[in-house]
What does this fold into?
Amino acid sequence: MEKLRFAIAYGADAVYLAGESFGLRAAAANFSPKEMAAAFAMCRENGVKAYVAVNIFAHNRDIAALEPYLETLRDMKPAGLIVSDLGVFSLAREVAPSLPLHISTQANTVNWKTASTWQEMGARRVVLGRELSLAEMKEIRERTDVELEIFVHGAMCMAYSGRCLLSNYLASVMPTGAPAPNPAAGDTGWRRRKGRASIIPSKRTGAALIS
It folds into this structure.
């Protein structure tokens, strides 16, 4: 909540946040249902749009709990939902058809046909993959009329578009499900010992990747 207050105080016109489940940044100080309701009220009072990230790639075990969560979000009326998984997208369309859906950068949209297809299925906005060049973004813009959003800052991971292979290797955590430890953004460094190079990741995991 404190970070939200700072964002509003410094002039943000939109923010995104996540609940205690179904968001990739599960290690962050995410919002309980009560906190989320208060956050939405604060945003409305200040003319700020609040979007909720529901951006995991859901497994079978996630689906049953997703429906009541989406119903809760529908009743809270955020500015929209940010999703990655096609099943989550479909369920959100069924359960909360009034909420605009934005396609997360995690969905790896890197061509105009995919962006157009998301729009045809009901997406309001597509957050493009971070691997694109300016020329590729320009072509997507010229060939579609869906809203586009582009990262100007963010980790470029060694797998693809934020799907961090290091999360899985170092911390035995799925990079496409919560929690995502994001070791690439941690306190890392290099060391050489007897001709071998090691990546020294965050102290949080205590592991090292030897090359």
Summary: Confidence is low (pLDDT under 50) at residues 205-211.
